[in-house]
Amino acid sequence: MSATAHKTAPLPDDIRGRKGGDPLVSLTAYTTPMAQMMDDHCDFVLVGDSVGMVLHGLPSTLGVTMDMMIMHGQAVARGLQSAMMVIDMPFGSYEESPQHAFRNAARLMAETGAGAVKLEGGAHMAETIAFLVMRGIPVMAHIGLTPQSINTLGGYKVQGRGDAGAALITDAKAVAAAGAFAVVLEKVPANLADQITSDIDIPTIGIGASAGCDGQILVVDDMLGLFTAFKAKFVKRYAELGTQGEAAIAEYAREVRARSFPGPEHIFADQAPGKG
Ligand code: KIV
Questions:
Q1: Residues involved in catalysis
Q2: How far apart are CA 143 and CA 120, in angstroms?
Q3: For residue range 191-218, what is the model confidence (pLDDT) as tens digits?
Q4: Measured distance CA(88)–CA(73) in Å, rounded
Q5: Which residue, by CA, sits nearest to atom 1 of ligand 1?
Q6: Is residue 219 in contact with ligand 1, taking CB distance under 6 Å?
Q7: Measured on CA atoms in the order 263, 266, 270, 274, is the torsion positive or negative?
Q8: CA neighbor of 113 nearest in space, from 142, 80, 156
Q9: Mind listing the pLDDT tens digit for each residue in 31-49?
């Protein structure tokens, strides 16, 4: 495709306008090559704070910093032309006050070129969401299993089962009313995800939720089989790149030890070809 033939990336309002339409497609990305690979296939790409666990080997997302998000956001931005980029606000960068959230969200947007930020939390974050949106920062909300609250949620459990579902419906309505343009529903029962999807007028983006959501997101390293420390039930592996990569590395090691790599086609003669 020529440089001028690229479609332009959707804006948050375009994403909002897809409510009830064709499902929105989304993945996470943390690097330029991954972003390039998904640019033509995704409506938006999330620079998720999952980067901490997936690329940096952290035990949770709590250790992810603003500087890490900015560095990965800049890398992803270099790989995107057609998909909108959303960037996660890391733990500790937005919870304290709407003003603190604004300063960090503005920095993330200015230094990475992201089209929107994502933050975790429901009704208790509504004031902050409204504060950011009123000041020009589009916000994607994230409710259900919110990994930054893992220590108060007591683990990576399904959220909103039984009577707890009512609180999640309240959260979804609160973030929509505050001006979020979409909301991620993570690890919630499918019937609750369907109920929320019909109750609110912004797109729901499911991860471990329901095929009835307005869109889906997965962590790219999970779906490509590159992150193998554990596999959540909601992850479908579309490839096994981790296994393939390890086999390739083992083959390389065997060939180096056998002196069969590099072969004649990988080495240089003393004289360039064609020179007498
Ligand atoms: O950080 C992340 O990758 C996310 C997705 C799982 C939605 O928040």
A1: 186
A2: 6
A3: 999 999 999 999 999 999 999 999 999 9
A4: 9
A5: 48
A6: yes
A7: positive
A8: 80
A9: 999 999 999 999 999 999 9
